[in-house]
């Protein structure tokens, strides 16, 4: 069965429907009866000349006893890699306050990435790229710190010398 699963997972939607239907010993008509989809439409799906609506996809998945994701996506296309899964499991085990912080950090990174992608699509460099260009001209110069503790220390030393 694992071999069949791998074979089915590297196929197109239409080929997966055909493979699953035959594996289950169903004819096109019996799949149509089980799913409530007209047999001519099943033939179109299998021929690759039509794609199902969300509702038809749900009916096909139920009739074939698989998930809609299995019908639509190739293996690994919709799965998180193991490294990310472990991290998300670790976050899920954290207290709710720490989960909220982790979610906020992730949300910020996602938004940053989406903005950078949107800017690239319209032909503008991302803000990080502009910053890198600006600091590249200041070789050997360090960027002044804006951390609050550094600012307060600097202002108190100025007051002492002033």
UniProtKB/TrEMBL annotation:
<dbReference type="InterPro" id="IPR001387">
    <property type="entry name" value="Cro/C1-type_HTH"/>
</dbReference>
<feature type="compositionally biased region" description="Low complexity">
    <location>
        <begin position="152"/>
        <end position="162"/>
    </location>
</feature>
<protein>
    <submittedName>
        <fullName>XRE family transcriptional regulator</fullName>
    </submittedName>
</protein>
<dbReference type="Pfam" id="PF01381">
    <property type="entry name" value="HTH_3"/>
</dbReference>
<dbReference type="InterPro" id="IPR010982">
    <property type="entry name" value="Lambda_DNA-bd_dom_sf"/>
</dbReference>
<keyword id="KW-0238">DNA-binding</keyword>
<dbReference type="GO" id="GO:0003677">
    <property type="term" value="F:DNA binding"/>
</dbReference>
<feature type="region of interest" description="Disordered">
    <location>
        <begin position="123"/>
        <end position="162"/>
    </location>
</feature>
<dbReference type="InterPro" id="IPR049639">
    <property type="entry name" value="RstR"/>
</dbReference>
<feature type="domain" description="HTH cro/C1-type">
    <location>
        <begin position="17"/>
        <end position="71"/>
    </location>
</feature>
């Amino acid at each position: 069965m694992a071999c069949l699963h791998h074979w089915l997972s590297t196929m197109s939607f239409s080929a997966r429907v055909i493979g699953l239907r035959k594996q289950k010993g169903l004819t096109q008509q019996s799949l149509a009866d089980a799913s409530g989809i007209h047999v001519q439409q099943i033939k179109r799906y299998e021929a690759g000349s039509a794609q199902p609506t969300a509702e038809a996809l749900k009916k096909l998945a139920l009739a074939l006893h698989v998930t809609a994701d299995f019908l639509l996506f190739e293996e690994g296309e919709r799965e998180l890699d193991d490294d990310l899964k472990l991290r998300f499991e670790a976050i899920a085990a954290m207290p709710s306050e720490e989960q909220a912080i982790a979610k906020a950090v992730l949300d910020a990174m996602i938004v940053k990435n989406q903005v950078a992608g949107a800017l690239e699509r319209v032909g503008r460099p991302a803000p990080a790229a502009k910053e890198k260009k600006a600091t590249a001209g200041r070789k050997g110069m360090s960027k002044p710190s804006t951390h609050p503790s550094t600012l307060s220390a600097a202002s108190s030393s100025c007051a002492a010398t002033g």
